[in-house]
Amino acid sequence: MAAGSTGQHPGFFDIKSASLTLVAVVLKTTDLAALADELQQRLGATPDVFDQEPVVIDLAHVAADATPVDFAALVALLRRHRMLPIAVRGGNAEQTLAAQEAGLTEAEAGAAPRGEVKEVIKEVVREVQVEVPVEVRVEVPVSTTTLIIDKPVRSGQQVYAKGGDLVMLAAVNPGAEVIADGNIHVYAPLRGKAIAGAKGNTAARIFAQCLEPELVAIAGTYRTTENPLPPEVVGRAAQVRLDGERLVFEAIKL
């Protein structure tokens, strides 16, 4: 008798509802060439921020645009930046149908809160389930997990504290990169790139004993050496935080 031919067999699989945390890519143009340029500018220096993480494409800002969206090309573009598009929301009927023909599903659009962050990749979507509306939250709670590194990060190296804070007890050298979903603390010279709030946590901060970075970024807002830091913080103990969509640099008195 073949396995599974009786009614007593428990079965080889179950189907259950599951929740999935997603990042929303808020599309504000149907010009994929312009989008590709901005993605490269904003994410090209941090290729591992998205590690094949699923995303939902928010079309609310382009729903009135009559220009068709090439979803196959859009999916390929996002995948080049290590994102895995699985759904769309907020589009018109034609856009939604085109997205479904490209293999994407439709996520029910939730009402966005006032003061929605205006960056391309900041919004966090939670609780995407079958027949369950998408719940939108702008700010990500700070995780309690901490990654501690006690060796210097050298040029070409990268350290990523996924889901929490990063504490560096040694230098971040030029050409090196430190990333955290929460805060970054560097109890040594910070001379490379520091990216805090990588998943959209606007409350994240960067602290350094000696602030001389090539780049600092919090939740997608960044500043490079092309725009010199205020003289009162260069080479000194300082913190970096967000005030709205502006980076604020403040000296720390030790």
Describe this structure in words.
It is a single chain. It is built from 3 helices and 17 strands. The strands form 3 sheets. It has a 6-stranded mixed beta sheet, with helices on one face. A 6-stranded mixed beta sheet has the order 7-9-11-13-16-17, with no helix packed on it. Strands 8-10-12-14-15 form a 5-stranded mixed beta sheet, with no helix packed on it. Strand 5 and strand 6 form a beta hairpin. The longest helix has 12 residues.
**Poorly predicted spans:** 1-5, 110-143
The termini sit apart by 78 Å
Q: Could you give a short account of the major beta sheet?
A: 6 strands, mixed
**Tally of helical runs:** 3
Helix percent band: 10-25%
The best one-word shape is: globular
List the helices and strands and how they pair.
Blueprint: E1 22-26, H1 32-43, E2 53-58, H2 71-80, E3 83-89, H3 93-101, E4 105-106, E5 121-126, E6 135-137, E7 146-149, E8 158-161, E9 165-168, E10 177-180, E11 184-190, E12 193-196, E13 206-211, E14 215-218, E15 221-224, E16 238-243, E17 246-251
Parallel strand pairs: 1-2, 2-3, 3-4, 7-9, 8-10, 9-11, 10-12, 11-13, 12-14
Antiparallel strand pairs: 1-5, 5-6, 13-16, 14-15, 16-17
Describe this structure in a few short sentences:
The protein is mainly β and 254 residues long. 12% of the residues lie in helices and 32% in strands. The chain is built from 3 helices and 17 strands.
